[in-house]
């Protein structure tokens, strides 16, 4: 091989990409956004919109300028965090892991734990951002935000014991959502927060220790409200 040919070969061979030692490969934009949102959510729940992009960057382990490569402004990051919190994908994935062969009480307890945790995270975020007037133009929840999807999934989890329930699985699933909201809301849960254990017992057995009658309110003599109605 001539010296000229060797020179051409050296020039035309592709040079492999080399990442500097100790430096991570750059993430695709979607993954980078998800990383930043995940780091921002706990800070937004704690500090609201007062959190700085520098604090978010430190939590994400990135340079502050990296945030603005995927978000045009801080408000866009806040909007993305709200949308992520409202997306039911994680809750649905958790519900998919509930063992349908487990006893009813264990399944009900599991879905209440998932529901209370999800509601708590959403309510904390909304309360923290409540005073932020710049969030008034917050975009609508994504199409994936379908509260009925979660209720329907809970109903499927309860379906194996449908014959033992006084209500339909879908109706019980609606009560699960109501209990989860009440347990997570800082006003409704005062003075003592309702735990998943307590919510499970109340949903299954009510507040009366005595056996429940088949029908309530059929005996006029048992009416606790006396006198003429107004």
What is the ordering of alpha helices and beta strands? Answer: HHHHHHHHHH
The CATH architecture term of the largest domain is Orthogonal Bundle
| Helix share, percent | 55-70%
Q: What does the largest sheet look like? A: none
Counted up, domains total: 2
Number of strands: 0
Overall residue-averaged pLDDT value: 82
CATH topology of the largest domain: Tetracycline Repressor, domain 2
End-to-end distance: 110 Å
Description:
The chain is mostly helical. The protein has two domains: 28-86, Orthogonal Bundle (Arc Repressor Mutant, subunit A), CATH 1.10.10.60; 87-208, Tetracycline Repressor, domain 2 (Orthogonal Bundle). The chain is 56% helix and 0% strand. It has ten helices and no strands. It has helices at 3-12, 29-47, 53-60, 64-70, 74-86, 89-96, 104-129, 147-158, 169-184, 196-205. Helix 2 crosses helix 3 (53-60), helix 7 packs across helix 9 and helix 8 (147-158) crosses helix 9 (169-184). The longest helix has 26 residues, at 104-129. Residues 5-24 and 141-145 have low confidence and may be disordered.
